[in-house]
């Protein structure tokens, strides 16, 4: 097994027995996505989840007026998963699409279940789930309670790479504002520097 394997950033070698880590890495498959490829499509059942090695992707929904609304962005080391669909075998309610060319590592549900008896593997999954929940909750409250400029500044602080690599229109919908408002906020910030 390659000592520089990308997934060792996810599954820290110090936390795993060598044979367990080898078994885990063997279950993942490297996959490349072109810009605009779908990792998961609305209405499908998610049979895989992915760890992002490089590139950018986003999840989005189409609202009742037909608008494309970004719900999350993904970059290096992020888990790309529709939790409900993957574990409960329900239909996905969102699209997850590559914004740029991406390299990811996928695992099927069947192969995931083969690893579930490894305690350290379960702990990585539990930690990822909890972190995703907190990120979602923080974003939901921020959309309701924080001014648009503060939401943008928080995104800029927590994920500057997203702001630099994702189209502004997609960032604006994620922040719950128009792209015109986002342009105005960005100009205000630039003018104060």
Textual characterization of the structure:
By secondary structure, the protein is an alpha+beta fold. Helix content is 46%, strand content 21%. It has eight helices and eight strands. The strands form two sheets. It has a four-stranded antiparallel beta sheet. Strands 2-7-4-5 form a four-stranded antiparallel beta sheet. Strand 4 and strand 5 (68-74) form a beta hairpin. The longest helix is centred in the C-terminal third of the chain and has 27 residues, at 119-145. The protein is globular. The model has no long low-confidence stretch (mean pLDDT 93).
In terms of DSSP E residues, the strand content is 15-25%
How many H/I helical runs?
A: 8
| Physical arrangement of strands within the biggest beta sheet | 1-8-3-6
Low-confidence region ranges: none
Broad shape? globular
Specify the structural class.
alpha+beta
* Average pLDDT: 93
**In this structure, how is the largest beta sheet organized?**
4 strands, antiparallel
Strand and helix order? HEEEEEEHEEHHHHHH
Distance between the termini: 49 Å
Instruction: Give the proportion of residues in helices.
Output: 40-55%
As a whole number of angstroms, the C-alpha radius of gyration is 18 Å
Key structural traits:
193 residues; alpha+beta; 4-stranded antiparallel β-sheet; 8 helices; 8 strands; globular
Gist of the model:
By secondary structure, the chain is of the alpha+beta class. Helices cover 46% and strands 21% of the residues.
Secondary-structure blueprint of this entry?
Elements: H1 18-27, E1 29-33, E2 38-40, E3 48-54, E4 57-62, E5 68-74, E6 79-80, H2 83-88, E7 95-98, E8 102-108, H3 109-115, H4 119-145, H5 148-158, H6 160-165, H7 168-175, H8 179-191
Antiparallel strand pairs: 1-8, 2-7, 3-6, 3-8, 4-5, 4-7
């Amino acid at each position: 097994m390659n000592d520089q394997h990308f997934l060792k950033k996810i599954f820290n070698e110090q936390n795993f027995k060598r044979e367990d880590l080898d078994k885990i890495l063997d279950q993942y498959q490297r996959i490349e996505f072109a810009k605009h490829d779908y990792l998961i499509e609305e209405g499908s059942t998610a049979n895989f989840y992915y760890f992002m090695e490089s590139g950018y992707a986003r999840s989005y929904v189409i609202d009742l007026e037909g608008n494309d609304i970004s719900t999350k962005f993904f970059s290096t080391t992020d888990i790309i998963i529709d939790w409900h669909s993957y574990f409960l075998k329900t239909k996905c309610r969102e699209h997850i699409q590559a914004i740029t060319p991406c390299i990811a590592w996928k695992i099927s549900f069947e192969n995931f279940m083969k690893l579930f008896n490894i305690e350290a593997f379960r702990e990585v999954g539990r930690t990822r789930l909890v972190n995703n929940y907190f990120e979602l909750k923080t974003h939901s409250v921020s959309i309701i309670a924080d001014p648009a400029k503060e939401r943008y500044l928080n995104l800029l602080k927590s994920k500057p790479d997203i702001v630099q690599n994702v189209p502004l229109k997609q960032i604006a919908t994620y922040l719950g504002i128009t792209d015109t408002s986002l342009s105005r906020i960005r100009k205000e910030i630039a003018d104060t520097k």
